[in-house]
Design brief:
Two copies of one chain form a homodimer. Chain A contains 14 helices and 13 strands. With 385 residues, chain A is an alpha/beta fold. The first copy, chain A, has two domains: 136 residues, Aspartate Aminotransferase, domain 1; 234 residues, Aspartate Aminotransferase, domain 2, CATH 3.40.640.10.
């Protein structure tokens, strides 16, 4: 390679699942038939009405051109109404919403729009690996803050305040939390907003799991004064089984959104209009859609618990979200354990350590698998234990 | 705004068309009915078979989950066959193609994957503004190289070699060239590859306009040794009237592609599978598709020439691509001229200067407008001249 890659790339690995899925597809290519129960890719598909909308809209000749950078009005309006009806929160459809091709890309957009080289970013450990990767790629240093089981996976503000917070520019939070399934609360969000104001930190809540196995969805934007320091990422992926569609949004005060648009409009163009129109329709689905989805996840969760029991793991029966997060009782090495299961039982389970130091000794299994698939995984694991 | 944006954002303006379209939609909201003939957003829509494929694929339940970061095999394979049949160039579908949500995002991915702070980037003037914006956002300095009408808009290697090229890491080229419509040639590409090798520069050809009013489409990847120093961006937007769909690809040697995947897989997820399947089908359309499209553009171009004549502009009747690039004869200020036409005739034409210093005194009109719309624009302009 004559031309060398940038320094920011040198210490970045490809996203964990990018490499892991390549390994699994190699295993499958030699006939190993790996059952992947580690990844949270909703398997049930969206409501028929959403697909019908996509089809109708793609049949209209004028829907194939470039779209506006901030997203079409119908979709922004739908997100605004969704915030009002589900979170009792007023969001201006015109200038407090940036449509995203999935909330994941929003993490990089925010990093690039607010972080300078040498800035610091508070990242939850355990947490979604992209927070660290995006921060580093934007030139920032990361400071992990601990989330511990004994503290119900909530941040310990006292210990965070003992850190040097002078150069901290962004704090990532993610409640309901992935991978642990811990729920947020109004009190926690209030404390976070106060903390962010005190230290002049941009607080971003990554919030894609709100409606999955959670009876009281809340938004950080509902807290008084939130718009001064907080933004929120939301997504259609999990709630509407549309992970592959890549539709999400960034919510925040106009001034913050405007900075993100500067970056994003120089990076890409607006999303395919038929996708946006279908997304707008999804956001209007009533409560029965989510109830039906959760009924299925509840049944699957029992089967996942059986697998966790088999693996000698403990878990919180009250957790929310699309995963079961289990602690290996005898404190075994989670990575060794999952490699063993992958090689011998041909079942892929996500090792906790990919989410950080505090994930060591934990496993994550996804509810996005049918009872039959989970039963088959269980059968395979029984044979090797 | 309590939290300040990053330095990289401070000197970046929102993409020109993002602001301009906002202005035009404000004018329209008070009933001004602006005719936009400046932007190149194909108006004719894709072939029916492409939309049918999207609809069929979106009806399949397993097509709604996350997709691989590099793009599905069917689409990579189609791009590979497309390179072989149109450019007589072998590209390995497995590791020399990265699927992109439109080629525009590839510009940022390349910048972030290869540029360090202080690196320099050669950018054509005039040229697509995103090359500069993405380079600056990645922390690099830009060096514009002149393209002049008297040189048929080709780079003048002698004058480029007089520059200090020590820290130059990337050179952007774009043939067929936007906005001028100048075509590339095998000789030019050979010279570019030699230049890039000599100075160890990553050469990237942005190549979305190849099939529009161009009888001899060529790829820089067809040049011997190209893969050592060159990459190419291609897109479905213009050739298949799918600008809104956001489907493109980056072509290059595995080592270069791998670096880009490191960045991209940490930034977003794979594209919606039904879009990719439909894209794969588009790439298989035969020559009659492009011929039909070009017949329409040829007729429209005559009408655009009439408008250019009216505005006292000269133009190259042999140019390719989706635009007519006209030089204002009396060397008028292009920006004043287009503002005058916008305010008085309510017709939007793109001023040449947004593409750089060498674009001053030029105008760009797009062929993606019906004869009727162009005639209406002409009628409106006649009234104010």
């Amino acid at each position: 390679m004559i031309i060398k890659s940038s320094n920011r790339i040198k210490h970045i690995k490809p996203y964990y699942f990018a490499s892991k899925m390549a390994q699994i597809s190699e295993m499958n290519s030699i006939g190993m038939d790996v059952l992947n129960i580690g990844i949270g890719s909703p398997d049930l598909g969206p409501d028929k009405s959403i697909i019908a909308k996509l089809n109708e809209a793609s049949g209209i000749k004028t829907n194939h051109g470039y779209q506006s950078y901030k997203g079409i009005e119908e979709l922004r309006q739908s997100f605004s109404e969704w915030y009002l009806s589900h979170f009792n929160t007023r969001i201006n459809a015109n200038d407090e919403i940036q449509i995203l091709a999935g909330s994941k890309e929003g993490i990089m957009h925010i990093a690039m729009s607010f972080l300078n080289t040498g800035d610091k970013v508070l990242i939850p450990d355990p947490g979604y690996p992209t927070y660290s990767a995006a921060s580093r790629l934007a030139g920032a240093e990361i400071i992990k803050y601990n989330l511990k089981e004994e503290n119900n996976w909530m941040p310990d503000f006292k210990s965070i305040e003992r850190l040097d917070l002078k150069d901290v520019k962004i704090m990532w939070v993610n409640y309901p939390h992935m991978p642990t399934g811990a729920k947020g609360s109004i009190e926690l969000f209030q404390e976070l907003i106060s903390f962010a104001k005190k230290h002049q930190i941009l607080l971003v809540n990554d919030n894609p799991y709100n409606f999955i196995l959670n009876n009281s969805p809340i938004s950080i934007m509902n807290i008084k004064g939130a718009k001064e320091v907080a933004m929120e990422l939301v997504s259609l992926s999990k709630t509407y089984n549309m992970a592959g569609w890549r539709i999400g949004a960034l919510i925040g005060a106009k001034e913050y959104i405007d900075e993100v648009i500067k970056f994003k409009s120089n990076m890409d163009s607006g999303m395919f209009k038929p996708l946006q129109l279908a997304g707008a329709k999804a956001l209007k689905l009533d409560k029965s859609w989510v109830d039906k989805l959760n009924d299925i996840y509840l049944k699957r969760r029992e089967k996942v618990w059986e697998i966790m029991d088999l693996l000698n793991c403990t878990y919180d029966t009250q957790s929310s979200g699309m995963f079961v997060w289990g602690k290996v009782k005898n404190n075994k090495n989670d990575e060794e354990l999952i490699e063993n299961i992958l090689q011998k039982a041909r079942v892929f389970i996500t090792p906790g350590r990919i989410f950080g130091e505090n994930g060591k000794g934990y496993l994550r299994i996804s509810l996005t698998n049918s009872i039959d698939k989970l039963q088959e995984a269980k059968n395979r694991i029984i044979k090797i234990i």
